[in-house]
Amino acid sequence: MFKEHAVKLAIAPIAWTNDDMPELGGENTFEQCISEMALAGFQGSEVGNKYPRDPAALRQALSLRQLEIASAWFSAFLTTEPYQATAEAFLKHRDFLWEMGAKVIVVSEQGKSIQGQMTTPLFAEKPEFTEEEWIRLADGLGGLGRLAAEKGMSIVYHHHMGTGIQTAAEITRLMEMTVPEEVSLLFDTGHLAFSGEDYLEVLRSHLPRIKHVHLKDIRPEIVDLVKQEKLSFLQAVKAGAFTVPGDGCLLFGDVFALLAASDYTGWLVVEAEQDPAVANPLEYALKARRYIKERSGL
């Protein structure tokens, strides 16, 4: 299906230890996390809060397990803070990822975001950007994209629940306000489905801009509960709204077919934040790896 050596598989550490809620998986060590990733058959990882930030130390730990770094999340505040503040933080992040051999930098606008607020209703209080904020965001992302290009890297924008770029319409507008040479897209199945979007249509519409993929499934009964009970994003995670591919309701065979037909190259990253005390990380990593093998041949 995919061309040989075109695609690599990674898994995010958020299944072992949660950056937004450190109490989830607080007992799980960095070494356990990356050892179980390798044991489950993955080639790479994104970066979590327990990972060493010294490139030499991180490379040593990863090389023992034949793992690479695919990327890492960066929080931008382009709509709420001066551009220079975000750019300075971005340069440090860029240089760290470049040292680790990553080609893409995951960027998400966190100005006005409610994703980290424990009691703010996810749908009822979804943030919206003003016209001025849209312009600041698009211009700022272009600037970050140019900084990434200095190192031969690309930024991939992460649409996300609880932020100003969540819906299909918002993704389309952002892509129209930016240029492909500066801003690419991260495609996340779970966040689109959670938002109520047609994730396959979003994939078809933006294939040329997609340079990074997060594979995340949802449990529709929990998503319905989140809406009915006006739960927050973090409460949704704790309740089990997300799960790994093959354990929810999404059609990943169609996702893989569309990506392969477009000659996608890059990383496919399993990212499904759950409470590791409820969903054993290694068990779910193995489940995801088997499912991806069955549906994609990878």
Automatic annotation (TrEMBL):
- This protein's pathway: Polyol metabolism; myo-inositol degradation into acetyl-CoA; acetyl-CoA from myo-inositol: step 2/7
| Keywords assigned | Cobalt, Lyase, Manganese
Xylose isomerase-like TIM barrel domain: which residues?
Answer: 38-294
Pfam families given in the database record: AP_endonuc_2
Catalyses which reaction(s): scyllo-inosose = 3D-3,5/4-trihydroxycyclohexane-1,2-dione + H2O
Cytoplasm in keyword set:
no
* Primary enzyme class: lyase
Q: Name one GO biological process term.
A: inositol catabolic process
Q: Molecular function (GO) terms listed?
A: manganese ion binding; myo-inosose-2 dehydratase activity
Which prosthetic group or cofactor does it need? Answer: glutathione; Co(2+); Mn(2+)
Q: What is its EC number?
A: 4.2.1.44
Note the NCBIfam families from the entry. Answer: myo_inos_iolE
Q: Which family does it belong to?
A: Belongs to the IolE/MocC family.
Task: Please report the name of this protein according to its UniProt entry.
Answer: Inosose dehydratase
Annotated source species: Paenibacillus albidus
